[in-house]
Amino acid sequence: MASKINLEHPRDQITKIISRIYKRGMTTTSGGNISIIDSQGDIWVTPSAIDKGSLMPSDIVCVKKDGTIIGKHKPSSEFPFHKAIYDMRPDIKSVIHAHPPALVSFSIVRKIPNTNVISQAKHVCGPIGYAKYELPGSNALGEVIAEEFKKGFKAVIMENHGTVLGGSDLDDAFQRFEALELCARTILYGSQIGKPNYLTDAQIEQFEAQTQSDYPEMKQTDFPSDEVEKRLEICNIVKRSCQQGLMISSYGTVSMRWKDNDFLITPTHVNRWDISIEDIVQIKNGKREEGKNPSRATWIHQEIYKRNPHINSIIMTQSPYLMAFSVTNTFLNVRTIPESWIFLQDIPSVAYGTHFKTNNNTQIIDNCSTALIIENDSVIITGDKLLQTFDYLEVAEFSAKSIVLGTSLGSMVPIDDNQVEDLRKKFLT
Q1: Per residue in 157-170, pLDDT tens?
Q2: Same domain, 11 and 140
Q3: Which of 127, 158, 193 is the last residue in one of the domains?
Q4: How far apart are CA 273 and CA 253, in angstroms?
Q5: For the Class II aldolase/adducin N-terminal domain, which residue ranges apply (predicted)?
């Protein structure tokens, strides 16, 4: 997946990613560490005991290939296992270690999350290893982790500790980190409302085998001011979705109708955190902008726009509480508070696989509701203005979260039919 972060200095890359992890609540002020090994064999790593919430590029430490330490701080106390991984796996160029709550939950009950819970997660994360407990910062911990990486794993659950992930670069490691934590949260939240269902390897392979794009290229593309304005809107909403935990770097599609049935859509294989207006793909008269590959879900967006003239923007994503309903096939009853039902009405779901182009599912396209859940895959939100559609996504996720959290208190008591009818008469007629 393409990322612009590799063009930055290792100290800037590390600072950017640790900030994302901290702001998303996936590590603490003192917890977690990140490293990059450069082409010279020098290792750039976060410092020991320095606030992760305000880390600056100048705080990053460089441990030279000969062991010399350059920087104003000590390297992370967990540096030994970072080095052990690099020594064992020359293909690994970056390592992330953190204590995200859901993955820590798995580590303390000594289980590995099953990535078959979401269609593309297994492809992003790969198989998951498991390292037995050893003293933090010890050479023994480095040895047990390195042994797991020796087996070919790039993601490892650390017993009673957290997780460690490697990648071909920092962007690759972070995508794996985000996807694995999303899987863990989805399983945890899903287990509170039902029993998570898992896809077979064959179903996941079927998803991965879908063609990237069968849209012919335009010979010439025009970029009038109104088109460029929509590109900027899409980029802002994608980044906001990532910041709010409603989208991850490896998954999420946003589109806006431009003129008639022509529209703009996010590309495939481009990191959502770093998306720019140049990455957005124009689809005009059934053709794609030259040199760009639109999302694999482009056909769904195109058909929705064709058959639903009132819809002018679409968000397709995986947010953790909505995914809990997706993977358990549990009905998401948004008759929780008036606002939820007014915005969303009842949310249908469709079976996994019905979103593949070969099925051309009419429930997704012809009877397109404001929100629709695809089992073990995603949620589709539609609306007029893109900000409105994003608001619907937030309302849906908040409603799902309230229901999941409320299960510990008792059974949900929804607004009754008479109250819903009153809402319909006042707000929808």
Answers
A1: 999 999 999 999 99
A2: yes
A3: 193
A4: 12
A5: 12-188, 232-404
CA 375/CA 263 separation, integer angstroms? 26
Q: What is the reported pTM?
A: 0.94
pLDDT bucket at 229, cuts 50 / 70 / 90: very high
Rounded CA gap, 46 and 16, in Å?
A: 12
Residue pair 116/125 in contact by the 8 Å Cβ criterion: no
Q: Do 293 and 267 contact (CB within 8 A), yes or no?
A: yes
Domain tally, the chain: 2
CA dihedral for 322, 172, 119, 277, sign (positive or negative): positive
The one-character DSSP state at 158 is: E
Domain assignment of residue 260, given as a range: 214-427
Please say which residue of 164, 193, 222 terminates a domain: 193
**Contact (CB, 8 A) for 255 and 301:** yes
Question: How many beta carbons lie within 10 A of that of residue 293, not counting itself?
Answer: 16
Decide if 115 is inside a domain.
Answer: yes
**Distance from the first to the final alpha carbon of the chain:** 46
- Are residues 125 and 232 located together in one domain of the fold? no
Q: What is the Cα–Cα distance from 44 to 56, expressed in whole angstroms?
A: 13
**Residue 5: exposed, middle, or buried by beta-carbon count in 10 A (0-12, 13-18, 19+)?**
middle
Is residue 35 within 8 Å of 79, Cβ to Cβ? yes
Which residues 6+ apart lie within 8 Å of 204 measured at CB? 116, 119, 120, 122, 123
Q: Name the residue among 233, 105, 244 with its Cα closest to residue 181.
A: 105
Place of tokens 């003129």: 259
Residues 141 and 245 reside in one and the same domain: no
Which pLDDT value is given to residue 4? 66
Q: In this model, does residue 2 exceed pLDDT 60?
A: no
**Cα 260 to chain centroid, rounded:** 31
